[in-house]
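Obj: model holo form, ligand = zinc ion.
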Amino acid sequence: MKEKGMNGVRTRDIVLGVAGIALIGGIGYGGYSFYQLSKEYDQTREALEAASGALEVERQTNAQLSESLSAEQARNADFENQIGSISSTVGKLDKLQNTDPQVLAKYSKVYFLSDTYIPRDLVTLASSSGFEASRTYKLTQDAAVQLEDMFQAAENDDITLKVASAYRSFNEQGGLKSTYRVTYGKGANAFSADQGYSEHQLGTTVDITTPAIGGGFVGFDGSEAFTWLNKNAWKYGFVLSYPKGNTYYVFEPWHWRFVGTTLAEELHSQNIHFYEMDQRKLNQYLIDYPN
Ligand SMILES: [Zn+2]
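Output (holo structure tokens):
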């Protein structure tokens, strides 16, 4: 009995013990599982956090990159604009540097071109353009090209224009003055060497005549040639330096100066003469010259 009883007790204890162990084990296992799960959860959460952190970093990085890209693009556009404006300015400066400021300068009885001045690119005009076949007439390249075109256009309108005088060096002026004196007597001092002197030394200015008046200057103001020039010369960049009633010199209808087509057109549209325009304003057309 005792054995049995003892056995009974022991059996019950064993049962309880086993159950207890199972329970504890179960709890323990559960706890372990919970621990495992929560550990995995933590790891997952950390991984997620890390991942989302990385995503956030990436997002921020992308935002920064995109911002930087925009800024860079803006900078490039700005830079391109600057380059554009710089190269345009450089182009203009370069052009100005290669343009002789004397070509648009006003000369007077007190302001002369330097006696050492020689135009850079003198060329000889076609012999058909000169009044005397045996003489050579020279102008700067730009003026010469436009003059030949102008003479051709006049010829197409049945007006014959001839050059009586073109480029004259400083030293040629003295000799010319006496020639004019012979032709015009004492009045020679009123023009020739005294006036228009510098403009001829520029190599951009011509005295024009026409066979209709015998190749001289007397009566030129009443000639068809003069009428034609007044109407058309500006299209070729030529202007009348000393019109009737000007304050600089006496009227010289035969004396035409090349100032570039842009300026000549502007003077024509404003209906003013070259010497009436302010020198600072004239200088602005150096950018366009010889156009
Ligand atoms: Zn002249």
